[in-house]
TrEMBL record:
Pfam families: Molybdop_Fe4S4, Molybdopterin, Molydop_binding. InterPro entries: Asp_de-COase-like_dom_sf (IPR009010), CT_Nitrate-R-NapA-like (IPR041957), MoPterin_dinucl-bd_dom (IPR006657), Mopterin_OxRdtase (IPR006656), Mopterin_OxRdtase_4Fe-4S_dom (IPR006963), MopterinOxRdtase_cofactor_BS (IPR027467), Prok_molybdopt-oxidoreductase (IPR050123). This is Anaerobic selenocysteine-containing dehydrogenase. SUPFAM superfamilies: ADC-like, Formate dehydrogenase/DMSO reductase, domains 1-3. Residues 8-69 form the 4Fe-4S Mo/W bis-MGD-type domain. It comes from Kitasatospora kifunensis.
């Protein structure tokens, strides 16, 4: 820790990329005039998430602090397509506040929208939601988690009663079997995948389910190269086989669940032959997978976007949890459903309620008691919070395009590059009277459309709490000053709120004060409990919630234990006190029969291919950070590409590196071909990292589908129907 006399000090912080939430130790040097600089970044050996390991992205965090193109001053455009002029921060904030207020006054609160991010600190997420729901009283707040974890969140709530995995990373060290489905962990959660491989070396088995032979699939003991979009058939088919083999845990089912009665009849529709037909998988592989699951003492599942980004994403989560409930493999060291969180603080955001009707502490504005609790927390008159919400981010941009939402404030996300069917976002931003963006860099695909650009502090320039996939709260430390007039997000949000006239609820001296307020939102129904945590405690190291008591343990690896500590205790009518209590109405976890349905958009004669989209190992999303780091660009040797199966390529007359024109009902893209049998025939894969800043016709989200899951409102980013043709060489497709 800090040693004031020495030239350098060591500061413990957390990685700013993925939701594994690796601990980082910064070596910070001070020059003669006392200015501090990060000279070295290394993995924090004492952090439970990574025990010293870092992947390439975390390891280049110091380079990230030096990326070119930072937004150091506010910029204001007098007219939409005009030059953005540097403006003093106070003037820009005043203008943002004045113009937002004018829109609300003229058109009502729902004319203003906030679109925020799982990469903001918990304090910033909390304040954004407080401003939106408590003060502006708009029902229009959404986050990029809608594109990411929404389906896992709604699936957990239905099956188990509350959001978030019940277990923790410790389970990786005890599992006998891993089912990794719709997740390329090797590239996207590398440090956790290392932990999984360690356990595999000790004898555990790995089943990987993915339509694409990924780096993760390469390590599998059994790789199921499933037809895209057919996971429900597989999951139901596996449970069918477990029932047939007599490998369900009747005792667990009777004691801790409800809804099993319906399952046997439902599952009878998923015999192996039918499942093999629907999924394209050999029957023998299905039987082997079921045998391994049934025979495993402890087993866990890991899933990410291959299941969530689907029009039946919520059902995918339910069907996967059914398997855990039926085998009793949950809430036991080494067992449980474990969604891998994408962004570094999407867990914090979900807990703060930054999507749809959410309120702090895993609460909902649709619940009368939750509203009353939060009105009290915020010191607002009863009835202030509205019992309404929108239907996700896709709908929000549609309403903006339609002129119903007239102003938006986009913080820490780049929707023109990342949103499904991004044509609607472009239309929406063009139609809006006022677009405010808040970012760390000046050039992004979205900033082009902004009237006011607010400069945000980057990682290590701001203090705030981040929550990872296993509920560790780690304090992200401020060790250097932000450049120019840039400020931490929470401060910019508080400033704009005050500029709108909301002086009461937004006076804070520090992020620690904001945290102190939000930690009062303890929810004894779900067990979300930060009462034992504050910034001071986190300076010494991470704490895993539920944490009821400042003197309590730092590690609380399992939820839903019926011990009455952070969560209301359950005593059944017969006087018994079950070992586990799920925060559902009955205290039991719920089986949901979820039939396999075809995807919203299927290939046809006009659009005969399925396009799958995702990520590469050394790049992050829309490249505003990693794309400016030389070491990472060298590692990801090539730019954009589309993977096409050799037989499809031959039929199209496309050779390696040739430009391919990809068209859908919504738009077109031009990408260089990579010919490979990683992808199935009839399917192709493109990363969505490279967008307008790198050339014309590269934005994959010009073609993706914005059909949404009717429960989670998560858009289908993994599957859309496209046509492929060899591009006219004059038009490019090369970068
Ligand atoms: N290097 C890197 N790491 C990251 C990120 C990054 O940008 N770069 N982003 C972070 C974020 S926010 C997220 S959300 C995660 C995402 O992490 P992942 O979800 O693991 O990554 P993706 O590449 O989006 O998609 C995962 C896999 O889903 C598969 N898939 C597509 N359709 C289907 C299907 O129908 N069924 C099944 N079973 N699988 C399917 C794809 O082939 C792909 O291999 O990564 C996080 N980590
Ligand atoms: N086709 C397709 N599209 C997808 C996906 C997919 O798999 N396929 N995945 C979806 C998923 S899971 C996700 S999570 C989204 C991610 O999509 P985005 O959130 O749009 O992606 P990022 O590039 O991470 O954007 C973050 C922005 O915040 C800025 N930023 C970084 N740090 C800070 C900060 O501290 N403060 C502020 N104010 N700004 C900061 C960055 O410069 C960048 O402009 O993409 C989604 N889009
Ligand atoms: S695994 Fe995720 S959290 Fe860990 S260093 Fe890599 S990007 Fe950062
Ligand atoms: Mo994500």
């Amino acid at each position: 820790m800090a040693e004031p006399e020495s030239e350098t000090e060591q500061v413990r912080t957390v990685c700013s990329y993925c939701g594994v939430g690796c601990g980082i130790v910064l070596e910070v040097a001070r020059d003669a005039v006392g200015r501090r600089a990060v000279v070295r970044v290394k993995g924090d050996k004492a952090h439970p998430a990574n025990e010293g390991r870092l992947c390439s992205k975390g390891a280049t965090s110091a380079e990230m602090l030096a990326i070119p193109g930072r937004l150091t001053r506010a910029l204001v455009r007098a007219e939409r397509d005009g030059e953005a002029t540097p403006t003093g921060l106070e003037a820009a904030v005043a203008e943002a506040g004045r113009r937002l207020r004018a829109v609300v006054d003229a058109h009502g609160p729902d004319a203003v929208a906030l679109y925020v991010s799982g990469q903001m600190s918990t304090e910033a997420q909390y304040l954004a939601n407080k401003l939106a729901k408590g003060y502006l009283r708009t029902s229009r707040i959404e986050s990029n988690s809608r594109l990411c974890m929404a389906s896992a969140g709604s699936g957990y709530k239905l099956s188990l009663g509350a959001d978030g995995p019940p277990g923790s990373y410790r389970d990786f060290d005890h599992a006998d079997l891993f089912l990794v489905i719709g997740s390329n962990m090797a590239d996207c959660h590398p440090v956790l995948f290392q932990r999984l491989l360690e356990r595999q070396r000790a004898g555990a088995r790995l089943i990987v389910v993915d339509p694409r032979r990924t780096a993760t699939a390469a390590r599998a003991d059994l790789f199921l190269q499933i037809r895209a979009g057919s996971d429900l058939a597989l999951l139901n088919g596996l449970l069918h086989l477990l029932v047939e083999r007599g490998e369900v845990d009747q005792e667990f089912i009777a004691e801790f669940t409800e809804g099993w009665e319906e399952m046997p009849e439902f599952l009878s529709h998923y015999p192996p032959a039918a499942v093999a037909e629907a999924t394209g998988l050999p029957e023998a592989d299905l039987r082997r997978a079921a045998e391994w699951i049934g025979g495993a003492g402890e087993w866990m599942s890991c899933w990410t976007m291959g299941l969530n980004q689907s029009t039946h994403g919520t059902w995918n989560t339910n069907a996967l949890i059914n398997l855990h409930l039926a085998t009793g493999a949950i809430c036991r060291p080494g067992s449980g459903p474990f969604s891998l969180t994408g962004q570094p603080n999407a867990m914090g955001g979900r807990e703060m309620g930054y999507m749809g009707p959410g309120l702090p502490g895993q609460r909902s504005a649709l619940d009368v008691e939750d509203r009353a609790f939060v009105e009290d927390l915020w010191g607002l008159p009863a009835g202030t919070l509205r019992a309404e919400s929108g239907r996700g981010a896709v709908e929000m941009f549609e309403r903006m395009a339609a002129g119903e939402i007239r102003a938006c404030w986009i913080i820490c996300t780049n929707p023109v590059a990342s949103m499904a069917n991004r044509g609607t976002v472009v239309e929406a931003l063009r139609a809006a009277e006022l677009v405010i963006t808040q970012d760390v860099v000046a050039d992004t695909e979205t900033n082009v459309y902004a009237d006011i650009l607010l400069p945000a502090a980057l990682w290590a320039e701001a203090e705030g709490v981040m929550v990872n996939s296993e509920r560790d709260l780690t304090l992200s430390r401020r060790v250097v000053d932000p450049p120019g007039e840039a400020l931490p997000d929470w401060q910019l949000i508080a400033k704009v709120a005050r500029a709108m006239g909301f002086t009461e609820g937004f006076e804070y001296g520090s992020a620690a004060e904001v945290f102190e307020e939000l930690s009062r939102a303890w929810n004894p129904r779900t067990g979300w409990d930060l009462r034992g945590v504050d910034h001071e405690r986190l300076r010494a190291g991470p704490v895993q919630w539920p944490s009821a008591d400042p003197g309590g343990p730092d590690r609380n690896p399992m939820r839903y234990l019926n011990d009455g500590v952070s969560q209301d205790a359950l005593v059944r009518r017969d006087g018994t006190r079950p070992r586990l209590v799920f925060p559902t109405a009955s205290g039991r976890a719920v089986f949901f029969p979820r039939p396999h349905l075809p995807a919203a958009e299927l290939p046809d004669d006009d659009y005969p291919f399925v396009l799958n989209t995702g990520r590469v190992r050394h790049q992050w999303h829309t490249l505003t950070r990693t794309g400016r780091i030389a070491r990472l660009n060298r590692l990801s040797d090539r730019g954009p590409f589309i993977e096409v199966h050799p037989q499809d390529a031959a039929a199209l007359g496309v050779g390696e590196g040739d430009g391919v024109e990809v068209t859908s009902r919504r738009g077109r893209v031009l990408l260089p071909a990579r010919i490979t049998d990683r992808v199935r025939r009839g399917e192709c894969f493109a990363p969505f990292h490279w967008n307008d800043l790198f050339g014309e016709h590269l934005a994959v989200n010009a073609v993706t589908s914005d059909a949404v899951d009717p429960i989670s409102y998560q858009p289908e980013l993994k599957l859309c129907a496209v046509a492929l043709t060899k591009a006219d060489p004059a038009e490019g497709g090369e970068v």
